Amino acid sequence: MMSENSENLKQLPLGDWHRGLGARMVPFAGYEMPVQYEGVMAEHIWTRTEAGLFDVSHMGQLQLIGEGAADALERITPGNLSALAAGKIRYTLLLAQDGGILDDLMVTNTGHHLYLVVNGATKHDDIAYLREQLPDSLTLEHLEDAALLALQGPKAAEALAKLGIDPLKPDWPKPTDLHFMEAGPFLWRGIPLGISRSGYTGEDGFEISVPAEHAVTLAAALTELDEVRPIGLGARDSLRLEAGLPLYGHDMNADILPVEANLNFALSKVRREEGNFAGAERVLAQYPDKAAKKRVGLFVDGRQPVREGATVVDAAGTIIGNVTSGGFSPTLQRPIAMAYVPMDLSETGAPITVEQRGRKIACTVADMPFVPHNYHRKPKP
Question: Using N-to-C axis directions, what is the helix angle for 233-242 and 40-49, rounded to 10°?
């Protein structure tokens, strides 16, 4: 968690609600946020077996409006956004002019405009960069009066169905009819909601954009359900680590290129062929496996977790890489981590040595995700 002066922290729309539930609040991304309620281990397991409710209102919710928005955004992202159908979502990367990763984000084609969700710690820098790079004919709006909730877990759909949320039009799908990476507009008690079937835990689930003034009402209605409990940042971090999902500012940053970050899937084939995005020459020179280093998963021997900041060393003790995320996996009951290692040591099963506080710890390169994803994908025809 980030160390910040509590006097300068912003408050979430649900801040008092969290405190009323006994949440332990900590500084994160400039906000005071709940790290846990009953405990990280219990909250993690609950989300893997039932449904957890996360407050992710610190994230940046943006609207990009105007003709040619997708084409313009493609200049600084490597995703095929112009082919994104209405109601569909794509994960992509915001790239600096040299190809370094400035952020990762979700882009939804609403049918009228593009809706973007960016990381909380980088949202103001992202907005400034987008306004600098995009044409003046486009309008970029920051939805500062919207909260964002994530309902995640195998019983998320069952819980959401109990709220009686209606599609905006009678012939449109219900929220639970959505598949992974689909989204739509809905109404609940007259309150407009933007709901996507997505999330960052590896489980099935939904992200719900709601006007901030109605966030407490929605959160309370969800947590009154037997399947749902509030979950803090601690479990969110351990869940996304088990899912093998990188966290911006930890597992990737502006000095890291997409291939190094093991995000080749974010480089759409048509965009690779066009080669017309920021830093394309440098990025594509590494594709698909020509980078000097790569983000990998690690199984850690023993019971002692390795943490961000630990180093990867060779037999002579020379630093050759670094751990970017690490912790104990409640699901696997063993420590796991993500690290950057030389490409020739990135194959599954390769032995890796990590040094932490002067102690050498044996690790093995592991396939990611560590825990299989449980997304509700659309059946293939």
Answer: 60
Does position 7 have pLDDT exceeding 80, yes or no?
no
Q: Considering only CA atoms, which of 254, 231, 307 is closest in space to residue 41? A: 231
List the beta bridge partners of residue 191. 188
User: What is the C-alpha to C-alpha distance for residues 235 and 256, in angstroms, rounded to an integer?
Assistant: 26
- Residue 315 makes CB contacts below 8 A (sequence gap 6+) with 353
Number of separate helices (H) and strands (E) present in the chain: 9, 21
Q: Tell which residue, 115, 2, 96, has the closest CA to residue 105.
A: 115
Count other Cβ atoms within 10 Å, centred on residue 344.
Answer: 10
Per-residue pLDDT at 3: 42
Q: Is the pLDDT of residue 2 over 80?
A: no
Residue-wise pLDDT tens digits, 159-179: 999 999 999 988 899 999 999
**Please, what's the b/e burial string for 124-154 (b: 16 or more CB within 10 A of its CB; e: otherwise)?**
ebbbebbeeebeeebebebbeebbbbbbbbb
Residue 293's beta-bridge partner residues?
A: 342
Q: What is the DSSP string of 94-120?
A: EE-TTS-EEEEEEEEE-SSSEEEEE-T
Residues, the chain, total? Answer: 381
93 exposed, middle or buried (CB, 10 Å; 0-12, 13-18, 19+)? buried
